Amino acid sequence: MKCLKKCRKIISKDTRRLISFKKKKWVNFTKNIDKNDKKYGEYFTFFVAFITSIFIRFFVVAVSAKFSYSSGKMLIDFILQDFLIFLLSFLSIWIVLSYILKCKPSKLKYLMILATPLVVLPPLIDFVATKGGGYWSFYINESLRGLYPIYVTFFDNLPSAIEYFGTRIMVFFAVFMIALYVAYVIFAKSRSFVKSVILFFITAIIMYSIFFFYASFPSWFSFFYFSIFEHKSIMSVSLADISSLFITPHEIFHANPFNISNALLKKLNMIYALLVIPLILLKEKRDKN
User: What gap in Å lies between CA 230 and CA 210, rounded to an integer?
Assistant: First the structure.
């Protein structure tokens, strides 16, 4: 019994030391971020970490594709597309989390900074899994009926030639860690295990839905476009409709900046750029309230 008590005391001392060490590390980490943000502007550290992760991601993708890009313009379109789609994803998650946890988005910036390297995971995992090749992971363009089985099976039943191997691992890890963080915060505030478990699953579903929405964004935008401007039922929007909207070149102000090879990327980049603005404004409004 005496030995057990001594062991417990030693373990509890070591645990306390480890916790205090981690707390010191975390305090130093947050202090350095706050110092940089005060010097260079709010969210400076996040944008540096985010942009760095995007360029590392693109480098891994470029190595996997053996730098086989037809032109410098297409190269820029790919980088811009990754930058915008992930920025939208981060902003959406950031804002939703602030509502779930009932706090200002600025309180969550440390979490978002730590999450930025996750954007590198999908192509890196694919690169390792294929021994230098990489998988073809692109947007899920499907009808509403076609999207349902993909959603409920966690990106299974994908269209032919598309493989979400690395993406599925990244999404699962991100969803799990965010939901776990929310559950931890809720439990720390309320001391209610049931409430924290419920919010864990609710958060997981919401986060997964955000990732799925952006992974299949052309489909959702097509549902919106054809229902509003073409007065077409959402259920009747087909893959052919989605393809005609995004892949077919269209004129803008009597000029045609698109061709079949880059029409999808350019159109999506234009839409994403327009969507980023209201999300940034909403986040800023949440910070001021």
Answer: 26
CB within 8 Å of 195: residues ≥ 6 apart: 186, 187
Contacts (Cβ under 8 Å, ≥6 apart) of 193? 187
Q: In sequence order, which residues have a C-beta less than 8 Å from that of residue 176 and are 6 or more positions away? A: 204
**pTM of the full structure:** 0.84
pLDDT in tens, 239-254: 889 888 887 765 544 4
pLDDT tens digit sequence for 52-103:
999 999 888 888 766 665 555 677 888 899 999 999 999 999 999 999 999 9
For tokens 């313009």, what's the residue?
73
Counting other chains too, the contacts that 96-102 makes at CB distance below 8 Å and 24 or more residues apart are 96/206, 96/207, 96/210, 97/178, 97/182, 97/203, 98/283, 98/286, 100/182, 100/199, 100/202, 100/203, 100/206, 101/182, 101/185, 101/186
CA distance 210 to 85: 12
Main-chain dihedrals φ then ψ at residue 255, nearest 5 degrees: -130, 150
Residue with tokens 């409709």: 241
Helix axes 217-229, 193-215, angle to 10 degrees: 70
At 252, phi and psi to the nearest 5? Answer: -130, 120
